[in-house]
Amino acid sequence: xxxxxxxxxxxxxxxxxxxxxxxxxxxxxxxxxxxxxxxxxxxxxxxxxxxxxxxxxxxxxxxxxxxxxxxxxxxxxxxxxxxxxxxxxxxxxxxxxxxxxxxxxxxxxxxxxxxxxxxxxxxxxxxxxxxxxxxxxxxxxxxxxxxxxxxxxxxxxxxxxxxxxxxxxxxxxxxxxxxxxxxxxxxxxxxxxxxxxxxxxxxxxxxxxxxxxxxxxxxxxxxxxxxxxxxxxxxxxxxxxxxxxxxxxxxxxxxxxxxxxxxxxxxxxxxxxxxxxxxxxxxxxxxxxxxxxxxxxxxxxxxxxxxxxxxxxxxxxxxxxxxxxxxxxxxxxxxxxxxxxxxxxxxxxxxxxxxxxxxxxxxxxxxxxxxxxxxxxxxxxxxxxxxxxxxxxxxxxxxxxxxxxxxxxxxxxxxxxxxxxxxxxxxxxxxxxxxxxxxxxxxxxxxxxx
Amino acid sequence: xxxxxxxxxxxxxxxxxxxxxxxxxxxxxxxxxxxxxxxxxxxxxxxxxxxxxxxxxxxxxxxxxxxxxxxxxxxxxxxxxxxxxxxxxxxxxxxxxxxxxxxxxxxxxxxxxxxxxxxxxxxxxxxxxxxxxxxxxxxxxxxxxxxxxxxxxxxxxxxxxxxxxxxxxxxxxxxxxxxxxxxxxxxxxxxxxxxxxxxxxxxxxxxxxxxxxxxxxxxxxxxxxxxxxxxxxxxxxxxxxxxxxxxxxxxxxxxxxxxxxxxxxxxxxxxxxxxxxxxxxxxxxxxxxxxxxxxxxxxxxxxxxxxxxxxxxxxxxxxxxxxxxxxxxxxxxxxxxxxxxxxxxxxxxxxxxxxxxxxxxxxx
Lengths: 450, 364
Description:
The structure holds 2 protein chains of 2 kinds.
Chain A: H1 2-17, E1 24-25, E2 28-29, H2 31-72, E3 77-86, H3 89-92, H4 100-105, H5 108-119, H6 126-133, H7 138-150, E4 158-164, H8 167-175, H9 191-202, E5 206-210, H10 212-216, H11 229-260, H12 265-277, H13 282-297, H14 304-328, H15 332-340, H16 345-373, H17 377-381, E6 386-387, H18 402-410, H19 416-446
Antiparallel strand pairs in A: 1-2, 3-4, 3-5
Helix pairs in contact in A: 2-19, 5-7, 11-14, 11-16, 11-18, 13-14, 14-16, 15-16, 16-19, 18-19
Chain B: H1 21-36, E1 48-51, H2 56-69, E2 76-78, H3 82-89, E3 100-103, H4 109-117, E4 123-138, E5 145-146, H5 148-155, E6 158-161, E7 164-167, H6 173-176, E8 187-189, H7 195-209, H8 213-218, H9 222-229, E9 238-240, H10 245-254, E10 259-263, H11 264-269, E11 274-276, E12 278-279, H12 286-290, E13 297-305, H13 315-323, H14 325-328, H15 333-336, H16 344-363
Parallel strand pairs in B: 1-2, 1-3, 5-12, 8-9, 8-10
Antiparallel strand pairs in B: 3-13, 4-10, 4-11, 4-13, 6-7
Helix pairs in contact in B: 5-7, 13-16
């Protein structure tokens, strides 16, 4: 054993003497060499796996984004048809009462249908007529009704109006090359309708415009009429309530626990429980909200108020933990200095520690708001999964939020909702990106390095 | 480490700057006030509807039309499932409780009892139409023609083979019947929580199975037998695909060999890609479901709380709109959404029920 090592050592010295690599022996590979090769291989493998996992996540994310964007970008435009409209008195107000009630109940469908008929030769068959009428969305009728109710003097006048196209026509014009009839059945456009649409394009009675309805409308069962404003405002109300409750309560809790509370078994218990609460599944908070806020206190079901309070419960532990970490990172010298200047403990906490910890607290709050914004499951239990055509005006009005709207739309059979869903996801992701960017900015700008 | 000053300063400093905590304090007090504000519920001006997710697309369509074409505001429609909806609906009378419940099955006796216990004495049942349940596969492949017995043999947990009750041995369709293709049995369907699943097992599995002599021998008790008949195999040939019917349709688009179970309106909306299997020789089409020749269909209901008529504005008008020809009639806008409309006789009966509501409202 000893002899062998001695021989090897002598060989190494010999090679050094001859100015050659001491580890390469003429008769093979040494254990040291093997070990180095192996170590280098493991290092390479480790790097490779690390890179692959990033590449894989990037690929999934990229695929997801590509899918969403390719499905959703068309939702930002809408197809409209230019239709001559005669607000004829015979249809709207046959008894000439001039009454709002009569105008409210009138058959606006007829106005659109009459207008469409003037665009095409008169000798159409019954089915052809139905196919023609189906080109225009129901939203067109509602639009005319609103116009007349807002301005009754329109009755008896005539003009031309851009009316929204039906969902399948809308998708067809936006996504089909329009060169051949291949694939038109996918859009449920008949051959005759295809001809009609080509004719309308030739007459320049078809156009694509920016989709205002999507940004300014409430929910609808017709994909071309559905909008996200209702759920967007609902999200804002919910988040505002959530911050108004969770921020002061969470920060005050953390301040007290960190700066004033005595260290004993009670505070330890509270601390452990707060950490546990941060890990409770969100649906539990939904159940809690349902039984306390709605059933016991009697707050209005489906409202942003209850939603915000439930989400406040959800994010409060997170805010407490973030705030305590931020407070802990403020050096004790700051506190001693303040005390030395004659400040009392409350002043030390409020004028110094809290102020210095604020950037960290804000980052925590903003990130937990982003989490609250994406929550769906607790809101399902308190009735925020509702169909609402109206935009909520106060926090006690029934409301939904953006992620709930996405959930509701995915359940609809009409394929026009696919693009709406994707577009709503794009908006939701944009909002989340903005919020996260804001958190990063606050951290960069105001963070104090000790 | 906890920070505690060695000598806490006594009293407040001479120059008393208003503490920055003031704002925070006010904020928390308002927050607390909001927190414990007792019942903010005000008198309602909107109809409140809860219940089945199957009826949801139809009720919302009527709600939207109602909101857009009358001076009443559009009702709020919540999708809570039939059971959850009826529970809320039967919770009591008054502004805090829903006015209408959507249901994809008739109300149960226990639910009625619960309603009565909570002071909801009179409710009006309105049948709004039918919903067909279809088995569909990709258009590129074979259109199935199945009997209920074959569907049962393909999906049940236990089947009868050679006169004995055995765990389902069938792996391919042609093992059940040589006329069927030699393809693996692969069916995507709703999970146990779904109303569509309930209706499917009741209309297909139960019909095919409760009469079998072997089942009768093994489970003489009717209820136990029913329960046993409702069981669907769990060995990978039936795949629970979640509540979302769109997902099932997507699976069928990508997997030519699979079948899916979902509502008729989804078949209609995706007719370019999938076709429904014939059941007992009848393909699922609007007319066939309406006249009952396609047998897997169920009625859909709404339940109206009589006591709320008159106190909730527009409730009566909404019920009228729901049963009007314009909505529920054979060419109405609900039929475009995939609801199978009632036969004329039944529709007239429903209109009568609503006018009875009008009468009761007037006498109040």
